[in-house]
Amino acid sequence: MTCSKALVCALALTVAAAPALAQRQPKAQNEIKIATLAPEGSTWMKAMHKIDDDVRARTQNRVGFKFFPGGVQGDEKDVIRKIRNGQVHGAGFTGFGLGSIVPEVRVLELPFMFDSLDELDHVRTKMSDYYDRAFDEKGYTVLGWTDVGFVYLFTKTPVRTPADMTGPRWWIWSGDQLAEIFFKAFAITPIPLAAPDVLTSLQTGVVDAVYASPLACVALQWYSRVKYMSDVPVTHGISAVVVSKKSLVGISDADLAIVKDASRKHLADLTAKTRVQNNEAIEEIKKEGVQVVAATPAAHKEFIDRGRAAWSGGVGTLYPQELLDQVKGILAEYRATHGTGSR
Questions:
Q1: What is the pLDDT along the chain (343 residues), one digit of tens a residue?
Q2: Distances (CA, A) of 218 to 35, 212, 278
């Protein structure tokens, strides 16, 4: 059995065991209900369970989490609606969900913004207070940030140049304004779908091209329905766990400090693991027959130039020009002292 097939089997076994595990966990005095698209058994969910164990132990079960993994509460926009209705309290969101609450966060996911993970870490650290305040103003508390990883193009036909992108039927996350801006720069009209519908749509031919991090492509089994992966990372996907402020009202300041501390500690560990496993996932999908297609230097430059030209498309709708300039300034200052990194 190959690594990828072993991972999928492990995920299936964990899902089957999940109800029994949940029954053995005593209900906390204050229960925070968290939804996520990540499947049970994934690295992401293992980290969430570690947060839960840590918080329960340190608060003597005054605070705990209840998880709804694998998209059982719907797509990220569905979850936001349910948070507002009080059906769940928070979620592990990708940049799409985070941007539905605070659109300005999408600056951190602009195509070809970062040349290295060090650049991303520096900018995100510098901007963390800004974004914490922005979410607070919208009624949310950020428990911690983590990564999705560099995002690549996965297709049924090879994409070596920007011109090759016009052939496939591309998936786009329904309602994702940043992705719309990106595809517009390449003269593409994508097909909007909710994330849980992508695998079926790849199977039936509704779409034949997607964008994702390698680890997500494996965990969601999309790798099994594509043949090629472009070696050009088009952006870097971010993620965070956020909860509604009103869901935390019954939790003491001391216990809330524990929740935040545990979340940030284990999400930092998750980030480190995710970065390693994204590289491992590339090797896994190659073993399954997915070919990594290399772009020529000229094509790579064209991808970058067209992607960066799209940044202006989000000004006034997703983020103000001042914020874009601020992030670019932080990045330029970092590069001046550290040089540029490599993906």
A1: 333 333 333 333 333 334 334 435 789 999 999 999 988 988 899 999 999 999 999 999 999 999 999 999 999 999 999 999 999 999 999 999 999 999 999 999 999 999 999 999 999 999 999 999 999 999 999 999 999 999 999 999 999 999 999 999 999 999 999 999 999 999 999 999 998 899 999 999 999 999 999 999 998 899 999 999 999 999 999 999 999 999 999 999 999 999 999 999 999 999 999 999 999 999 999 999 999 999 999 999 999 999 999 999 999 999 999 999 999 999 999 999 987 644 4
A2: 20, 10, 9
Instruction: Check: CB of residue 187 under 8 Å from CB of residue 116.
Output: no
In angstroms, how far is the first alpha carbon of the chain from the final one?
30
Domains and CATH numbers, the chain: 18-338 (3.40.190.170)
Per the structure block, which two tokens stand in for 319? 């983020």
Residue pair 112/304 in contact by the 8 Å Cβ criterion:
yes
CB-based contacts of 26, cutoff 8 Å, min separation 6? 61
Please report where in the chains the tokens 């999400």 appear, as a residue.
Answer: 267
Q: DSSP label at 294?
A: P
Taking residue 312's Cβ as centre, other Cβ atoms within 10 Å add up to 11
Q: How far is CA 30 from CA 36, 296, 335, in A?
A: 20, 55, 45
Helix (H) or strand (E) holding 335: helix 321-338
Residue 87 is encoded by which pair of tokens? 């059906």
Cβ 314 vs Cβ 105: under 8 Å: no
Q: Residue 126: left if φ>0, alpha if ψ -120 to 50, beta else—which one?
A: alpha
Q: To which H or E segment does residue 173 belong?
A: strand 171-173
- Please tell me the distance from the alpha carbon of residue 209 to that of residue 166, in angstroms, as a whole number: 11
Both tokens of 138, joined, read 């919208």
What DSSP line would sit under 97-109, residue for residue? HHHHH-GGGGGGG
Tokens of 211: 């964008």
